[in-house]
């Protein structure tokens, strides 16, 4: 069965080129010109990735991403004419996996799609989230046992007995901190160790991912904050 991709793009000429390029690579593509049609299509089919334009005629692409992230961890690639750094940062902060600026080559987008799918399959597979968050079950940590447990074979990390639902970069970032408790890593060090293309990442990208990791840790234990911030420097894990 071919991998199904949802394309949300309001310009037919751009959409035609993307659809052709992705189909040439063996993907099944469903094209929707509006956000509302895309959200309806997403609810009806099992898409493995979403290519999402930001400047849609009905709903902003950022808002579409936020809606999808409420119940799904499907990989999302933004395509947009916006070149400002803040737009890229916002896109990453709200859960996008990649960001491609127009004009771009359809072949480049196809390569990015394959790269994102490959990385997402290596990390925890995207899974639907419950519409209404259920209480997070935790297992009491016995005296002497570590707060964190890492399963490198499954690319999983447990915190206080509860498995964390982490994206691939969140997993890698937290793992780096866990490997050297107490060591202060600069943002540049973290980008070099975690990101596939550190030169294309932004300083604030690290901050955004640390923020989401903290939120997931706080959901399990609101009174603890094991990640320490060193303003102007970087981060460490409390030893």
Layout of helices and strands:
Blueprint: E1 4-8, H1 12-24, E2 28-32, H2 35-44, E3 49-53, H3 61-69, E4 76-80, H4 85-93, E5 98-101, H5 106-122, E6 148-151, E7 156-159, E8 162-163, H6 168-179, E9 185-186, H7 187-194, H8 203-220, E10 227-230, E11 234-237
Parallel strand pairs: 1-2, 1-3, 3-4, 4-5
Antiparallel strand pairs: 6-7, 7-8, 9-11, 10-11
Helix pairs in contact: 1-5, 6-8
Evaluate the radius of gyration: 19 Å
DSSP summary, beta strand count: 11
- Detail the poorly predicted runs: 123-136
CATH level 4 superfamily of the largest domain: Response regulator
Give the tally of structural domains. 2
What does this entry look like structurally?
- It is built from 8 helices and 11 strands.
- The chain has helices at 12-24, 35-44, 61-69, 85-93, 106-122, 168-179, 187-194, 203-220; strands at residues 4-8, 28-32, 49-53, 76-80, 98-101, 148-151, 156-159, 162-163, 185-186, 227-230, 234-237.
- Helix 3 (61-69) links the parallel strand 3 and strand 4.
- The protein has a 5-stranded parallel beta sheet, with helices on both faces. Strands 6-7-8 form a 3-stranded antiparallel beta sheet, with helices on one face. Strands 9-11-10 form a 3-stranded antiparallel beta sheet.
- The protein is elongated, with a radius of gyration of 19 Å.
- The protein has 2 domains: 4-122, Response regulator (Rossmann fold, 3-Layer(aba) Sandwich); 148-237, Arc Repressor Mutant, subunit A (Orthogonal Bundle), CATH 1.10.10.10.
- With 239 residues, the protein is α/β, with parallel strands linked by helices.
- The N and C termini lie far apart (47 Å).
- Helix content is 40%, strand content 18%.
């Amino acid at each position: 069965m071919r991998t199904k991709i949802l394309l949300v793009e309001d310009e037919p000429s751009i959409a035609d080129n993307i659809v052709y390029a992705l189909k040439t690579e063996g993907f099944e593509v469903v094209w929707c010109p509006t956000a509302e049609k895309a959200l309806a299509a997403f609810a009806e089919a099992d898409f493995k990735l979403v290519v999402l334009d930001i400047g849609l005629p009905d709903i902003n692409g950022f808002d579409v991403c936020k809606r999808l992230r409420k119940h799904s961890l499907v990989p999302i690639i933004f395509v947009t004419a916006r070149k400002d750094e803040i737009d890229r940062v916002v896109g990453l902060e709200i859960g996008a996996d990649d960001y491609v600026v127009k004009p771009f080559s359809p072949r480049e987008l196809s390569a990015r799609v394959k790269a994102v799918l490959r990385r997402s399959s290596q990390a925890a597979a995207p899974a639907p989230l419950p519409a209404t968050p259920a209480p997070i079950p935790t297992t009491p940590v016995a005296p002497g046992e570590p707060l964190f447990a890492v399963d490198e074979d499954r690319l999983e990390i447990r915190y206080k007995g509860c498995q964390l639902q982490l994206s691939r970069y969140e997993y890698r970032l937290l793992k780096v901190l866990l490997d050297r408790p107490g060591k202060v890593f600069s943002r540049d060090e973290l980008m070099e160790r975690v990101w596939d293309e550190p030169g294309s990442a932004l300083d604030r990208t690290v901050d955004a991912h640390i923020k989401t990791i903290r939120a997931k840790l706080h959901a399990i234990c609101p009174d603890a904050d094991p990640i320490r911030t060193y303003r102007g420097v970087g981060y460490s894990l409390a030893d």
